[in-house]
Specification:
- The protein is an all-beta fold.
- The protein is 0% helix and 50% strand.
- The protein is built from no helices and eleven strands.
- The termini are far apart.
Length: 122
Amino acid sequence: VQLQAFGGGLVQAGGSLRLSCAASGRAFSPYYMGWFRQAPGKEREFVAAISWSGGSTYYADSVKGRFTISRDNAKNTVYLQMNSLEPEDTAAYYCAAARGYLIRIPSDYQYWGQGTQVTVSS
């Protein structure tokens, strides 16, 4: 599976962005999909994940209530809608695909896209 993330940019605090991650190659639907982020000097951290059907979603406490993950298997795309953005959300955001049901740490994922930068100004 090849993944390509896009949609990042510069936004003011309180604003919104929607990230997209397009998958190609192998069938997209059997995979759990996740979003991670990594700020300079920090470890990559879990943001959100979604089951293959879209019926189950998982969020980090820091983004719960502000971010929404969704997927469209017909379009082989997963989305991350980010609202009420804060300067602390500034990071490179990565999408990833996991064959299994474990989704909270980077090593759970087998495929990664390149990062897309999100910068939130105060």
